[in-house]
Amino acid sequence: MTIDSQLEDWQEFLLRAERRFHEVLLISRDEAPGLVSDKLLKTIDRVRQVEPNEFDSFIWNHGGVAGEIQQTFNLVNQWSHDLFRLCVWIKVYEEFERTLGPDTDADWKPLWELRDWAIDPLAYFCMLQPSGLKWRLAAVAEHALHVANRAVVPGYRDELEQDGHAPGAWRRLDRIIGQVERLGTARSWLRYRAFRELLGQLDSKGYEKTSRNFRNLAAHGFAPRFEMGPVITMNRRIGPWTKLEQQEDGSYAQIEVRGTKAVSYGFGELRPLSYKDAYSANRAQYAVAMRTMAAFQELVEELTMAMNARLPTRRIEPTTPRP
């Protein structure tokens, strides 16, 4: 098979798959995960009612809080779109798998092409989103709570844990969430606790288990592949030195040598993660994300109402410059 004929086959097959994708998408619309309500975006705009020269309202509107919330909103909805596309592509893949059978031709593997071109990039993106959203929401909540506390909490000190760090220094998630807890309880914000509990359910231990620790391995090692192909793993361990000793019955046993350590290596493999398992685990996390975003919207609404009630509303006239 020549390269030109391979390219022609590849093009013809992917066009056929794309057409089938749109057909299945139309009949699967009821399975779409849903989008975050735009009520959140209307809520963040409310702080623009207050005095434009007031520092805290300026920081909220123009210093990043409203923008961070807008970007978080957009990224969650991007996750929703890609999760639905993943759902549809999995159906198309299963159809072609039934009709074409397994890839056997050494030169042309249509199912491999379909996984590589359409499905794996979507699955990879979606699998990382629970962790990404947890980090983003923690950081955005930290910023929003701090600005609101500055505006409405008497005697609140404008100090954050990261003030002593070098600019741009990496911060651990548990440190960020720990500070969010401190900021969320500085004024007994009524809607904070529901948000905090749901935030803890994102990227949960259950998701880590069902996804075979996909996010951490993708970021710091080798994540399991999708559908086919194991990933070879290796672990190094330092433990007691052992030696073989013959027993009274003539058999041999490993006996530890006290006070002596040895290096050992273990080898294994990560089994591939099926598309269905990956989608099911990720879809469950998206449902948690929707509830978390709804709770966050309620918290943001409480913050904006408190800021509007406390911040000055009169306009400060600019001073006339001296001649």
Can you give a write-up of this model?
The chain has 323 residues and is mainly alpha-helical. It contains ten helices and two strands, in the order αααααααααββα. It has helices at residues 3-27, 39-44, 55-62, 65-100, 110-152, 173-184, 192-199, 205-210, 214-220, 275-310, and strands at residues 231-246, 252-270. A two-stranded antiparallel ribbon has the order 1-2. β1 and β2 form a beta hairpin. The chain is flat. The model is unreliable at 313-323 (pLDDT under 50).
Set out the fold topology.
Elements lengths: L2 H25 L11 H6 L10 H8 L2 H36 L9 H43 L20 H12 L7 H8 L5 H6 L3 H7 L10 E16 L5 E19 L4 H36 L13
Antiparallel strand pairs: 1-2
Helix pairs in contact: 1-4, 3-5, 4-5, 4-10, 5-6, 5-10, 7-10
Strand proportion: 5-15%
Overall residue-averaged pLDDT value = 86
Number of strand segments: 2
Q: Total number of helical segments?
A: 10
- What is the string of helix and strand elements? HHHHHHHHHEEH
| Cα radius of gyration in angstroms | 27 Å
Give the overall shape. flat
Poorly predicted ranges: 313-323
Q: Structural class of the helices, strands and pairings?
A: mainly alpha
Distance between the termini: 85 Å
- Strand order in the sheet with the most strands: 1-2
Share of residues in helices: 55-70%
Main sheet characteristics: 2 strands, antiparallel
